[in-house]
Amino acid sequence: MAGLIKREDIDEVRQRTDIKEIVDGYVTLKSAGVGSYKGLCPFHDERSPSFHVRPQMGSYHCFGCGEGGDVISFVQKMDHTSFSETVEKLASRIGFELRYEDGGTGPRREDIGRRQRMLDAHKIAAEFYRDQLLTQGAAAGRRFLQDRGFDRAAAELFGVGYAPQGWDGLLTHLTGKGFTQDELKLTGMFSVSSNNAGRIYDRFRGRLIWPIRDITGDTVGFGARKLYEEDQGPKYLNTPETSLYRKSQVLYGIDLAKREIAKTRQLVVVEGYTDVMACHLAGVGTAVATCGTAFGADHIKIARRLLSDDGSGGEVVFTFDGDAAGQKAALRAFEEDQRFVAQTYVAVEPSGADPCELRQTKGDDAVRGLISSRRPLFEFAIKASFGNYDLSTGEGQVNALRHAAPIVARIRDVSLRSIYTRELSRWLGMQFVGEDQVARAVATAARKGTGVSSGPGTGSGAASREGTAPSSSAGSSEGTADAAGGEGDAQHFPRPDPMDPIGRMEREVLEVVLQYPNLLEPVHWERFAESGFSERVYGVLKDAVQAAGAAGVDPAQWVERVRQEVPEVLRGLVTELAVTPLPSKAEDALALYCRDIVNRLFELRITRLKAEMQGRLQRVDAAADPEQYVQLQRDLLALEMRRRQLRSD
């Protein structure tokens, strides 16, 4: 049984994972001063680098778009994986065995090792197939691609390869790389002989090969297309179910499409490998395809995570052939519609051409036009159902209305629901069923619970139950990187004026205590605690720093500990302060700067207190209350001594 990852293990993974090494896999980083690096932000388009990484603090922040967090949130956002999946992936990367709460379990060390061996075998196999496509024996495969408008660059982009016609080409290649037959049996890339003592042979022979990758880009299986008439196998042959490859959880092209899907909030579902290729090459970079199965609940979970399917927009577009099978597939997709908060659409080319055929015959514009011509899936479902009724009769219209009214009631946007209520009346015809009767039928269906909340973009009960993948599914209070991006809640935490010298000093002190807590001595922490913060948002962060407690804390854990002490809307600001470059460029001057800025803020506190006491001293009658007068003088002298001590430090 899967369990919740222990909090201390999450901290250990975070501490032991080099965030710079991880980010370097996605972003080209250059030095930006002592312990700081910067590059172009992977989360938004920019020309000059505003994305900063501080390895010592284990944090990143973009000063352009506000995205920020730690290594876990970075991988979550880039690979669109859940919190627990991300922690397990990073733990596997550093060879750390996680522990789980309440007797739960996660991947065992031996399972992690076995999975990595399988991934390695798939990676080498994908390279083998890709190289084979360039050989003389792969002429039929190259011709297949050329006939469908795909050149060599397109084949390389999608990693398309060729399986040679022999029985052991891949087997020989992988065993030569050190893999045993027992290991290779687990991959699904080989078949087992029934009459030769269990020996194995290549599963794919004489076929065009597409590597099927998961959302992180790892190859987990293959799809193979028949090229020769003498091949008695099916037209398409995929990897069978393995521990790596589960077709109900895989979407072909997701590794290439994930960032565009997240950016545009659109997902296009097509039917085959070549359709995905055609869409991407035509500029529809959000296209994916299922692998030999219908688009189901597990695929929807992936889609919702990529779309941030939370009621704030997004769309899913299904493309189907115009034949009966395509119509059946569209209706099957509609049955899953209520699992989405995003609006669902269908795009069907009138001639019945799929995206690949459309690109061949009419070009890239036609493919983009097909997606643009999408229409709501519920409209398609309603009209498709009318074929079962004789709308020329009153009985047929009434029965069609009984079937269609619940569909209209399910429309999430109340304005669209009203429009389609009127449209339904028109589609049915007014001779026997009037508009008022249609409206009453839709309202009745909604009251019975068939419909959903009336607000635009509000999900149904099914969508709410499905939910997006929780950011803290590992059983901690970890969150995904904050949307606030350091800007703060405008109503409760207004952004301080950057031109205010006092507010700027308070910010600089927070930058120091977050980035270099170990450079401050106990006396400086005492002065920090006594310093007053005039800006409310900085005061909240100061309280969080004190609540987190800096003594003996590893820098990589320190920032995250402070983040967990502030309201969620301010977590982005914590990360921003943790990566802001400090003015000291030399390491030997860094400690001096850190202590000096804390002392300066504390001196400002002393100056304020002295001014207050001097005012009180002027208001005290020395003859009437000599004791209070003397005490105020002593307090003033003590403050002055503390100020002089600061100057001598």
Strand content: 5-15%
Total E-strand runs:
17
What is the helix tally? Answer: 27
**What is the radius of gyration computed over CA atoms, rounded to a whole number of angstroms?**
32 Å
What strand order characterises the main sheet? 12-14-13-15-16-17
Provide the low-confidence segments as ranges: 450-491
* Oligomeric state of the chains in view: single chain
Major pleated sheet? 6 strands, mixed
Provide a descriptive summary of the structure in words.
Helices cover 49% and strands 10% of the residues. By secondary structure, it is α+β, with helices and mostly antiparallel strands. The strands form four sheets. It has a six-stranded mixed sheet, with helices on both faces. Strands 1-2-3-4-5 form a five-stranded antiparallel sheet. A four-stranded antiparallel sheet has the order 6-9-10-11, with helices on one face. The relative contact order is 0.09. Mean pLDDT is 82; it is low at 450-491.
